[in-house]
Design goal:
The protein has one helix at about 60-80, and strands at about 5-10, 15-20, 25-30, 35-40, 80-85, 95-100, 100-110. The chain has about 110 residues and is of the alpha+beta class. The protein has one domain (about 5-114): Ribonuclease Z/Hydroxyacylglutathione hydrolase-like (Metallo-beta-lactamase, Chain A), CATH 3.60.15. It is globular and about 35 Å long.
C-alpha cells in the first residue's frame, strides 16, 4: 500500500492517513497474532468518540472527519480490527459491534490481553 491510502513498511506494519483532524494524521496498523491493531490517534481518541456525530472540537475539517469515521468504522467492524484508544482512561483497546443505534464498542480489554 502506498500513496494517500497509506504506506506499508512490512507485511505487518503499515500507516494509513486521515485528514479531518489534521492534514495526514497517521494511524499505525500492526498485524499481531492474526489480528490487526489500529492506533486510533485523534480520529477516535476514546470509545466515547465512536458514535458518528462525535468529533474533536478542534478538528480542522470536521465534516471530513465524519466521512472518514463512517468509512473506517465499517471497515473496522467488517475486518474485526482491534482499536487502541490513545486518550481513553477506561478502555485501552476494543472491538466494534453493530447495534440498533449504529456501530458501538463491543468488548473492551487491555492491550496486555493480546
Amino acid at each position: 500500500m502506498t500513496s494517500k491510502e497509506g504506506i506499508a513498511f512490512t507485511d505487518d506494519i503499515s500507516i494509513r492517513f486521515v485528514d479531518g483532524h489534521t492534514d495526514a494524521m497517521m494511524l499505525p496498523q500492526i498485524k499481531y497474532k492474526d489480528q490487526t491493531i489500529v492506533y486510533m490517534a485523534d480520529l477516535l481518541p476514546s470509545a466515547a468518540h465512536i458514535p458518528i456525530p462525535y468529533v474533536m472540537a478542534y478538528d480542522t475539517r470536521p465534516l471530513l472527519t465524519l466521512d472518514e469515521k463512517k468509512s473506517f468504522l465499517q471497515e473496522a467492524l467488517d475486518k474485526k480490527y482491534i482499536l487502541y484508544f490513545e486518550h481513553d482512561p477506561i478502555n485501552e483497546c476494543g472491538v466494534l459491534q453493530q447495534t440498533e443505534k449504529g456501530i458501538r464498542l463491543g468488548e473492551a480489554f487491555p492491550l496486555s490481553a493480546l
